[in-house]
Amino acid sequence: MAEKPDAGVSADQKKSLEEERDQLSAIHRMTTDIAQQLEKARIAEYTQLLNRPWKLIWTNLLAGSARGVGIAIGFTFFAATIIYVLQALGALNLPIIGDYIADIVRIVQRQLELT
Fold it and tell me: Which residues, in sequence order, are CB contacts of 90 under 8 Å at separation 6+?
């Protein structure tokens, strides 16, 4: 005859065993969550990147160059839009805005004469 595995265990011991199992399953759940969060944060890739400084430098150089080109293109479009709007306003011959644009044109012409 086979005996039950819990045959010689009292009710208090069963309760403490269940509490330990619950605690262990909670700890397992928490460590699994932490591991998933670390994977989402890409900590492993970051530490590998720190261990290879030349790759870090190259990545930052490319990112900085792309950012610089993006800023230059964005500023070009922004400046072109502003100039277009100022030309349209200058064509309307509005007294205040027309004087302001005329001042800007004079300043630019003086700067061109100096160079």
Answer: 97, 98, 101
Tokens representing 29 are 């759940």
For residue range 14-69, list pLDDT tens digits in order.
Answer: 888 899 999 999 999 999 999 888 888 887 788 888 899 899 899 999 999 999 99
Sequence-distant (≥ 6) Cβ neighbours of residue 92 within 8 angstroms:
98
SS3 5: coil
Beta carbons of 101 and 89 less than 8 angstroms apart: yes
To the nearest 10 degrees (0 to 180), the angle between helices 43-51 and 11-41 is: 50
This prediction's pTM: 0.47
Amino acid at 114: L
